[in-house]
Amino acid sequence: MRALFLALFILPLPAWAQEPGELALVKKVFAKLQPISIRADREYCGYIGYDKSGKLVASKAMRGGKGNCMSRDPTELVTVIASYHTHGAFSTRYANEVPSGDDMETDEMEGVDGWVATPGGRLWYIDTTDMVASQICGIGCLPMDARFREGDMGRIAQSYTYGQLIEKLTGLDD
After folding, report:
1. Residues 115, 103, 33, 54: is their CA dihedral positive or negative?
2. Is residue 4 part of a domain?
3. What confidence category does residue 16 fall into, taking pLDDT thresholds of 50, 70 and 90?
4. Per-residue pLDDT tens over the stretch 124-140
5. Across-strand partners of 26?
6. How many structural domains are present in the chain?
7. Which residues form the DUF4329 domain (predicted)?
8. Which of 6, 35, 67, 148 has the fewest CB atoms within 10 Å distance of its CB?
């Protein structure tokens, strides 16, 4: 019981859990966007942050391309804390069950962390301070593409440093 108390109330929370309500908001956003993204086979993206009243909200999602998405500056947010984007439909042509190096680099350049939803229904968090992508929940955690085939990318780890991710993605191109 004492260990549970320490784990819940004294030990520091992981970075992705530091904004109250952020994970719940992100799951709600992706629950709505994933089916649209999969059906259209396009990425959708936006930002998470605080509006004028101090409420944690998501900006309106923008439709992107098959392998990219550029969101406009969110006028409804006063403070941006993270980006979010989907990876579209399942394809054996793309390594879309993990964040890409570009995903991590873009978030780092913008000075925000990031959230990524995959066709297999995985949810990833990108911590740009440490340049680590962590799988918050696995296959089927979010709405998923019915055509998804588990194992297409080989073993998927719970987390990747930027270097490990680049190595994994480069290894898939061979």
Report:
1. positive
2. no
3. very low
4. 999 999 999 999 999 99
5. none
6. 1
7. 26-138
8. 6
Compare 19 and 14 and report the one with higher pLDDT.
19
Domain annotation covers residue 7:
no
79 DSSP β-pair partners: 50
Alpha-carbon dihedral angle through residues 156, 62, 37, 33, given to the nearest 10 degrees: 90
The answer, as to whether pTM is greater than 0.90, is no
For residues 9 and 31, what is the distance between their CA atoms, to the nearest angstrom? Answer: 29
Q: How far apart are CA 11 and CA 169, in angstroms?
A: 34
Q: Which domain holds residue 65?
A: 13-173
CB 49 within 8 A of CB 57: yes
Q: Is residue 3 part of a domain?
A: no
Residue 6: inside a domain: no
As to burial, measured by CB atoms within 10 angstroms (0-12 exposed, 13-18 middle, 19+ buried), residue 120 is buried
